[in-house]
Write a structure and sequence with these properties.
single chain, 2 helices, 331 residues, 18-stranded antiparallel β-barrel, mainly beta, 6% helix
């Protein structure tokens, strides 16, 4: 499985708190065919909590290269969303553009929404090497897949084969957004710049590494070059995560909140503390209990909340643990 898609490590990176609902697909060791992540409701049985029916569940199906081809979301047992992705290698992507190719118009821009932006794009990039992915809505199988297009994204590699630029077009062929990537001399990702449908920069993400300290820092800036968030990952000598500190900033670059997550020797989440506005003491904390399969991938994670009351750390009264169950089908 390719590392840009699913990290080949044991319980390594944890996502930001805002991405909590999409956990479970990012830290799997081994070649995977299907991953199902379920959030079971917790039911009180006497003094104990037990798993009830799922509140939400997500199912991803992967191809032989580790790329998602189906991503499905359920609310309870009801299908909420389904996305089907078709991946085009360079010859297929070139053939698609060849079928659309028309003469470029010198007095128009990619930002227009008349549907011809994709045609001009294909004309301008005719001699370049690129791949593509087409995303479709899979929630209405009675309609042909071609009628359920969501977006088309084209990826251009640099001289070393790393993804350097992405162009995204909506279902009508209008330009939607693009991303540029730069890499450091050691091959690590150094910077990403995102552009909107007017082809104006809206965000910039900077990656820095401190080998001596064993840390990686990811700083995100807005269109006014103000820092909006910073994530610092600290690693053990084994290469596994030791701690992640996530910080969000307001318009004046003052701290809004901070989240600190500690990891055990295997790289799985062990504890978490959340702070507001630069406070020294956390508003609340979590402790994690994790079960893993034979490959070392976690298959169940239970999170218990604690609050600080008058300087004392106490279990959150009446609050059920948050449980995530992961089912992994290997190839």
């Amino acid at each position: 499985m390719k590392t840009p898609l699913i990290l080949l490590c044991l319980c390594l990176a944890a996502p930001a708190a805002a991405q909590e609902a999409h956990r479970g697909f990012e830290d799997i060791s081994g070649k995977v065919a299907v991953v199902k992540v379920t959030y079971p409701r917790q039911l009180k049985r006497g003094e104990a909590w037990t798993d009830g029916p799922p509140s939400m569940s997500y199912v991803n199906i992967y191809d032989d290269n580790g790329r998602p081809v189906e991503e499905t979301q359920y609310s309870g047992k009801q299908l909420s969303l389904k996305k089907v992705t078709t991946w085009l290698e360079a010859p297929e992507a070139a053939a698609f553009c060849a079928a659309l190719r028309k003469g470029p118009s010198p007095d128009t821009s990619f930002a227009e929404t008349d549907g011809s932006a994709l045609e001009r794009f294909c004309s301008g990039k005719a001699k370049k090497n690129f791949t593509a992915r087409f995303e479709h809505d899979g929630t209405s199988p009675s309609r042909p897949l071609s009628d359920r297009l969501i977006s088309r994204t084209f990826t251009f590699p640099d001289k070393k084969g790393r993804p350097a630029e992405e162009w995204r077009f909506d279902m009508t062929g209008a330009f939607d957004s693009r991303v540029e990537r730069k890499y450091a001399k050691d091959g690590r990702l150094a910077e990403e710049t995102a552009y909107n449908f007017d082809d104006l920069p809206v965000s910039r993400t900077v990656h820095t590494f401190n080998k001596a300290a064993g840390t990686e820092t990811v700083s995100v800036f807005n269109d006014r070059d103000q820092m909006v968030s910073r994530t610092v990952k600290a690693y053990r000598e084994t290469g596994r995560l030791r701690r992640i500190t996530e910080t969000a900033f307001d318009d004046g670059e003052q701290e809004r909140w901070r989240n600190e997550t500690s990891y055990d020797q295997k790289g799985c989440r062990a504890s978490e503390a959340r702070y507001t506005g630069g406070a020294q003491n956390p508003d609340y904390e979590y402790e994690y209990s994790v079960k893993a399969d034979k490959k070392g991938n976690w298959v169940r994670e239970s999170r218990t909340k604690f609050v600080n009351f008058r300087g004392k750390r106490l279990p959150a009264p009446g609050e059920a643990p948050a449980v995530v169950v992961r089912e992994i089908t290997y190839r």
